[in-house]
Design a protein that fits this description.
The protein has 14 helices and 40 strands. By secondary structure, the protein is α+β, with helices and mostly antiparallel strands. This is Tudor domain-containing protein 1.
Amino acid sequence: MSALVPGSKILGTVTHVEFDAGLCIGYCQLCEENVVDELAEAIENNVQKSASSYDNWSSDDIVLALFPEDDNWYRGKIVENGANGLLVFFVDYGNTETVNSGSIRKLPSLLKHIEPLATKCVLVDETPPNGQWTAEQEMAVKDKLLNQEFMFEIIKRSPQGFSVRMHSPSSSATSLDTLTMQTVALNSCHQCYISYTESANKFWVQLQETENDLIELMSQMTDHCLSSAEPLGSPRVGGYCIAYYSDDMAPYRSQILTSTSDKCLVQFIDYGNSESKSPGDLMKLPPKFMSFPVQGIRCCYKATKINPNKLEDKLQELMASEGGVKVKFLRRSNDEYTVEINEVEQLEGNSSMSNSQSEVQHDYPVSSLPLNQTCDVCVCYVEHPGCFYVQLLSSSDTVNDLMDLAEEEFVTSRSLSRVSPGQSCLAKMSDAGIYRGFIESTGSSISVTSVDFGFTETVDVQNLREISTKLQSIPSQCVQCTVDLTKMSFEHWSDEEINILKGFENSVPLVSMVTSSRGNVYQLDLYDTRDKDIDRYLNEELLGVKKQGKTASSYKESARRPLIIRRIQIPKPDVVVGNTEIVCVTAVHSTKQFFGQLTKVPVDKFASLQDTLTKVYEMGQDAIVDGEVGTFCCAKYTDGSWYRALITAVTGSSAEIMFIDFGDSCTVPLSSLYQIHPSIADTPQLCILCQFQKQPVNLSLGDLQSLMVDKVVEIRLLSKTGRFSLALSH
């Protein structure tokens, strides 16, 4: 689901309309139609497996409910238990209906983790002529909007929901004040400059072939700023402008990421880096400078066994390369490309990568898995939980047909005249089956990898044949997966953990959901729901065996009871001692210390995190069963919103928690704390505890709070013990 930030546009459908005084409230499915269809299919497949109905339902329980008008099952949230049945809010559509208790089922865990599809919106263009809606006007609006597709433009977020403006679905998602991104063909190689690096998962490159065009644009902008530049006026988050970079005092095309009354964080879009600016320093970006595509191409390095620190150091080093680097663009997700770089691939030690993560690239089209959607899979080959392969159950007929076609073609096809790494072929493997594959390596023996099953074997040359163009044009039928993108090598896994996953190899179908990806590798949540008595979340076992000291047999015995909680860790704040950071002061608890929220996190990423928190936890999660200090969790703050938190102290049935993205603390009942979900654990903590190097004099705590809270300040990090010692830049 796209991040809903002011200025963004997304195609969607109105599923329910309500009227509140002079407002028109619409519940809208802001997602692709196939997402709705796949959820409906998943519900249909799982409703018969879910627990039978019972009468002890409570408010806020998340359930499957039978909608009486169409006799279909939908996800819902119980609002109240009334005399005539249960009042249920259907979270994917927005309507509320009374449902008989016999038509309620427990919602399986795998369906609970999918975000609600209905987003509450204020439809700003729908207003009553006389300030109040009449029954006739309400009916006319419903007839016009319900089940119709529109292009929704996000205006702002308000207590009533997102304020949106609706356009015809044929309206362009872009406008005159929107720039296009530089695009490249997949699997193409280009000489590039690395313009800015945050990490191996986030860096920017520029095409060397457009270098002269960018230089000419910069020259024209310099002349413009010296002669006719106009002040921007009121900055708009997501809007474009011209801003000077402090290091070279040259003007650059920029986008506003965050904005307060006295500070704006802008990103220099042709390079990738960001800087804090005063609103008065920003200038309008004329249309004549907006036709040239954005030259900063955001990249993520492909899945690799290179040490992450070594990889990042190499990327930083290559930024200084005058001749640039050769980049291969492997895959695209939105505006981010997964890439490999020749100079990185030559790193010492990379040649020792396992077959599962080989540098050898095959020429078959690659299959993919949808993000944040459930699908039925078969685990077809397991090296370890950090590297295994799955096939979609829906492709089983295709796999069988491919095996038959390969066997027929093998009989008449010619032997390979020469063998080289990456070469596509047909291979007779040890089970006498004929498989589509590619040459993994040559030498004293020939290794061949099956593109439809993932395994690799040594094959005699006489058991290799040429493959036809037609058979090679069909996408590979398996995809490489992991349960943790940070643990993709063998040494992270015990025999017990490996055996748990191997127990499902080519035997028990699983339900999966992609929670993240890197290159062509997908991080999965795995569920065993083979019958109504089993609702088993395998990740808790695979990622908890060593940490909890449990054996595989103990998990089998407890498979139908609540599993051990996975100790999910949230990365520490992404800061380095010695660097300068821009922070928004969120809390001042003493005259020596304050909490600062890092502003370098893109506003759309922060908004997406908060939106995901709200949607995931309003749907319900398992409560924490213990209250150990140091456990990450999620909790509601006094404003009624959900936030990420850390347990800092426990007394009896209460816990003191700190909200890690804001710095505020409070004491809450342990029963109100919920397990952190992996989908919101990837983003590093956004707040840092800061201590003045020199305590401000003649200022009380109240003075400091009035002076600093909600203000954006620039700080220099001097040292770190339990907190950061710093100096204010100004």
